[in-house]
Amino acid sequence: MILLGIDIGTSGCKITAIDECGHILDEGFAEYETSHPQPGWAEEDPEDWCVAVRGILAELKERGAVDFADISAIALDGSTHNAVLLDGEMKVVRPTIMWTDQRAVAESAELNGVHGEAVFGTAYQMAAPTWTLPQMLWLQRHEPDALARTSHVMFVKDYVRYRLTGEWCTDTIEAQGTLFFDMARKQWSPELCGLAGIPLDILPPLVSPTDVVGKVTAGGAAEFGLPVGIPVVCGCSDSAVEGYAAGAVEPGSCILKLATAGNVNVMTDRPVPHPKTLTYSHVVPGMWYTVVATNTAARAQRWFRDHFCAAELAEAERTGRSVYAIMDDEAAQSPLGADGLFFHPYLQGERAPYWDPQLRASFVGATMRHTHADFVRALLEGVVFSLRDCFRTIEEMGLPVTEFRLIGGGAKSALWTQIVADVFGYPIIVPQGCDASFGSALLAGVGVGVFADERSAVQQCLKEGDPVSPAPERHARYQKLTSLYYRIHDVLADVYHDLGTL
């Protein structure tokens, strides 16, 4: 028996095949590009997601570790907030505006100023450019023809699943990422849709994340190289499923995420809406989680890799080592604090705790003595400082936290993980072999009855290593550096705003 999880993330696709005990049988990954046609804009071509899925599945089949005839179920997850617009023939109308896009600043300010109480009271969130509602309002004003041609709205994972099954729907957790969803009534809100001029009938029917919503069709089988008839489970957002996969299934568990974005997610037994946070239902029925998120985490590392690490990329090509492992070795040569060099990761503006799309990234404190290694380490530390900045909101809210679990690609780095432990000052649990695609594979098993329920699946399949403990002397040093990090933001915020006017 094989369960397949497909994660359509912001920067790439990951597919994981597991058995009913949670053993990873094979996995694959492929990157795709985000285009930035104007400063602050971020768009993706939905076809690129399908190309990535086809390519990975072809590699899995070629390696032969997974017999596709034994696949019992498939589930998908994806980055949220991202509306795929389709016309009456189910053809994509325009590139998808991604959650990192900042074009809807004016629309968000207007929504908060005029309709803020209604939006927050219904959807449990304040408007910001990351949400679908402001994005659609922007389209209504700047590209009305695109919306006029739109007869169906899907979201990232739903579009790929539609290509597999021909079925159009989404789950209630994904719906919460739109600002069109009434949290109390668990249905689309006519009032919120009306704020962007969106008719209700273009939004997909709502199901639960573990519902079986279709089977691989003949067309899906031909396109993706899968057998006809495999049950396909709806799935949910990557943020919800990755915390679940990491074992954060009890109130008080806190997820720290080092992926494209950086998250601080605290599990709760009830919704706790706050103007500075995001509020979502958990995969486990009855549970919720509060999110404080920075826009750019491991994505900043990838940006630095692509533009400033030609030598490291060449070495990786020559030796077969991961370029990130090579960058880690270099960063380890720099002292704690990168010899006084600071990095603020505001490459796409910033969400929590500032919700300021005009913020800009910067290296501060450079001198003639600084080396490339110092810049690499400063980037790693700056991303963790940003996570710690996010956690201040959790502290202000008084949410209890009983443990920290680190997930995302950055968790593969021993150095970055140790920096997280030293900055936060708490032991860090690093679950083994878990990510969003692993969590989706678990949901696939829940959906077809392999597991009794969501908690049972995690308890049966999750494996954990020993916690990574902080060093008291390093934590004390990082506390001083984190305070400086906050002060640098406060001083430069107005400068960043002035830069934005250029």
Return the CATH topology of the largest domain.
Nucleotidyltransferase, domain 5
Global outline: globular
Rg from alpha-carbon coordinates: 22 Å
CATH top level class name of the largest domain: Alpha Beta
Task: Sum this structure up briefly.
By secondary structure, the protein is an alpha+beta fold.
Structural summary, described in words:
The chain has 502 residues and is α+β, with helices and mostly antiparallel strands. The protein folds into two domains: 2-247 and 434-464, ATPase, nucleotide binding domain (Nucleotidyltransferase, domain 5, 2-Layer Sandwich); 298-430 and 471-500, ATPase, nucleotide binding domain (Nucleotidyltransferase, domain 5, 2-Layer Sandwich), CATH 3.30.420. The strands form eight sheets. A six-stranded mixed β-sheet has the order 3-2-1-5-14-13. Strand 15 and strand 16 (262-268) form a beta hairpin. The radius of gyration is 22 Å and the shape is globular. The model has no long low-confidence stretch (mean pLDDT 96).
